[in-house]
Amino acid sequence: MLEYLIEGLRERAPLRRSESEMATLLDDVCAGWSLDRPLLSRAADYTRTCAYTDDLFEVLLLNWAPGSASPIHDHGRQLCWMLVLDGSLRVDDYVRLDAADVAGYARVRPCESRVLEAGGVDLRSRPFDLHRVATSGQSKAISLHVYSRPLRSFLVYDEMAERCESALGTYDAVLPAYTGVLPR
Asked: Domain coordinates of the chain in residue numbers?
């Protein structure tokens, strides 16, 4: 199904699709989800595996160990679609209260939470569209992330210290079968 998704996005990139078109494409991926190899894992943490990247979009698979959570973060002014493929993930949304005009300073507060089961989608589309993602309970999960451009840098937030800092979009692994040029 990764090949299907990547080929579809190569034909028409995410920013050239409507929200409903992206939802349909992601529904199709979830319905036929399988991976012919295990994803890299790390105890009590999550790993980021690059499935595909070019100048127009990026596709990552995140493998969430039980008890793992991301920091509060934005998406570097990129749109991001997160699809839960296996397990369930809790999404905690945050709102930024300051004007974002002082480097390193950020006042954020939680605003709502929800649990996404397999097939659930979360869309991030605004510059300061913040969230934290965590496994739900003591189960593992796998999620697929499509970014409207490669996610090279983004901000992570410390709610208590009222700070933010830049982070780099790095990979723990790369799936070579999908990251090369695919035949048309």
From this structure: 2-175
In three-state secondary structure terms, 6 is helix
Among 69, 72, 44, which Cα is nearest to 143's?
A: 69
Question: CB–CB of 68/44 below 8 Å?
Answer: yes
In words, the CATH class of domain 2-175 is mainly beta
Residue in the block written with tokens 């570097």: 76
Helix ranges (H only) for 12-56 are 19-31
Are 142 and 85 in contact by the 8 Å Cβ rule? The answer is yes
pLDDT digits 0-9 by tens, 23-51: 999 999 888 888 878 899 999 999 999 99
Q: Is the pLDDT of residue 153 over 80?
A: yes
C-alpha 144/C-alpha 176 separation (Å) is 17
Q: List the one residue out of 142, 171, 131 whose CA is nearest residue 64.
A: 142
Return the ∠ at Cα 28 (arms to 18 and 80), rounded to 5°.
45
Q: Which tens digits make up the pLDDT trace of 90-103?
A: 999 999 999 999 99
Q: What angle do CA 62, 42, 164 make, to 5 degrees?
A: 65
> Whole-prediction pTM value?
0.92
